[in-house]
Specification:
This protein has 122 residues and is mainly α. The protein is built from three helices and no strands. Helix 1 runs antiparallel to helix 2 and helix 1 packs parallel to helix 3.
Length: 122
Amino acid sequence: MLFRRATPNLWTLITPPTVWALHFLFCYVAGAIICARYPGALGELRLSIAAGTVLALGLILAAGAQAYRHWGFGSDLPPHNEPTEDDQQHFLGFATLLLCALSAVAVLFGAMPALFIAECVR
């Protein structure tokens, strides 16, 4: 996998929202630049947003697979509130898994305007 680590840490926790934020910035900054300079290039913009969305979802999926492994494949159900290393790993894995799901939905919603906007409005 891309992000193979033996134990989770805060970097694995913030990876999915960071990917979402970068995707969001890419979609809206690229849309603003294209509409300001090249209003006829919406087809190319849609393709680049689609490619960026697939890339972002792939990265989030990879982070989700790692989080699922850190969670212990769902072997222990929450709450993970004991002061042990195993519970810390399970908690961070489960929290990262939930953030992956939220970030994937946010990426899809961030890419939706590319489907529905027909032309640039000045």
